[in-house]
Amino acid sequence: MEPSTINEIARRLLESLPATVRGAQADLEHNFQAVLRTTLGKLDLVTRDEFDVQTKVLERTRARLALLEARLAELEQATNQGAGAA
């Protein structure tokens, strides 16, 4: 996740705190950012670009599989017809 997004989330969390707690704003903001980075870093996330690339790879793989399945069906049919003629 991009640092600007983490900073935005940390800022929103800080704004949601009562005014009396905001006195320690710098410390809280730093702590929020650290916790968010650590927690989000543990998630198995990919970028949108990587997701799009993998989607295209999957589409090509599915198309190739469909062609191979059709070819296999043709070969099986030809084998069955050859066996029936003998």
Describe the structure using short key phrases.
single chain, 86 residues, mainly alpha
Would you give an account of this structure?
The structure is a single chain. With 86 residues, the chain is mainly alpha-helical. It has 2 domains: 1-45; 46-86. Helices cover 80% and strands 0% of the residues. It has 3 helices and no strands. Helix 1 crosses helix 2. The longest helix is centred in the last third of the chain and has 38 residues, at 48-85. The radius of gyration is 28 Å and the shape is rod-shaped. The N and C termini lie far apart (65 Å). The relative contact order is 0.07. The model has no long low-confidence stretch (mean pLDDT 85).
Compact summary:
With 86 residues, the protein is mostly helical. Helix 1 packs across helix 2.
